[in-house]
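Work through what follows:
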Amino acid sequence: MPRYTPFHSRTNALCSSQSWQEWSGYLSANMYELDHIHEYHAVRLSCGLFDVSPLYKYSLRGRGAPGLLDRIVTRDVSKCRVGKAIYTTWCDEDGKIIDDGSIARLSEDHYRLTAAIPTLTWLQDNALGFDVEITDTTEQFGGLSIQGPTSRAVLSEISDADLATLPYFGVLEGKVAGVPAQISRTGYTGDLGYELFVAPGDAEPVWDAVMETGESYGLRPAATWLSRWCGSRRGCS
């Protein structure tokens, strides 16, 4: 039976279509209304709010973390500075793509990798000989993605982070609605956008604050399927 994300009480109340899908074992809204057109226009003209909690999240700590990541992904991880993130793919021994995701460098020897499919065993199999601690932190965070032209304006009202100077693929820690959050200027809709990771216990207050503040900016809840559809039609910015 699918599990509920930390935001389910809010997404369930708003999903008038009752169209759901299973995403990595979690129940995820397929679209909130009977047609996704309002969600699409929100992302393009104002902003949309996505529950991305089902993304797999892995913490890699230790001096061997950069070496392990360089072994398995197709980007030069040494070029990823603290406070930055990179998008990358990883391949099997024959060079075939297994999955894609982002790697954020949270501190000198601490990285976070997000993935769409289970990757823990594969990371552990490749970690032999590296001084690295790998932890599955998927259930330790609820994830929100706020995407669209007005996303910065919405978050700036409820966050103490300096979003105006946060560069594309920049990562920082700050507060959103008064609670600690990891904030990155990332997303895959092709528009201005941010991703937030918060403790599950803080999920509902953060959702409520984003929705309340976003009302005057045209924000709408948006389904994850829409973000993938948008991303396939526009480049990142």
